[in-house]
Amino acid sequence: MEKIYTAVATSLGEGRAGSARTSDGSVEVELAIPVEMGGPGGATNPEQLFALGYSACFHSALKGQGRQLGIPVENSAVTAEVSIGKSDGGVGFGLSVVLHIEMTGVSQADAERVVAAAHQVCPYSNATRGNIEVTLEVEVA
Description:
By secondary structure, the protein is of the alpha+beta class. Helix content is 31%, strand content 33%. The protein has a 3-stranded antiparallel sheet with strand order 1-2-3, with no helix packed on it. Strands 4-5-6 form a 3-stranded mixed sheet. It starts with 8 loop residues before the first strand and ends with a strand.
């Protein structure tokens, strides 16, 4: 792979209970274990950060594939739900993702076609493919 850009981030403290920041200082967050996992909550966590990145990246891929296919992707939104749980077999943890994709002004068939194309080119989709379950839900209003 020919690298175009490299993001650098550092986590400090106790990992899930600490802080993280990017090398350029544009993002700096406190981290806390979610209440649902026995922690105090009150700050972001890796799953939320992954959901932010995946939804933004997939949305960009959706717009780009819409242009390539001649399908207007307007009034669109991508919501990523990233879940963490015990992996099958009970050893370690795993992730799953549900991407809710909403758009207007196109047929359901065209929406599904552009979403499928975006799923093939999105770097997050390519990184997760075969590693974690990703479900695509497409809604046309």
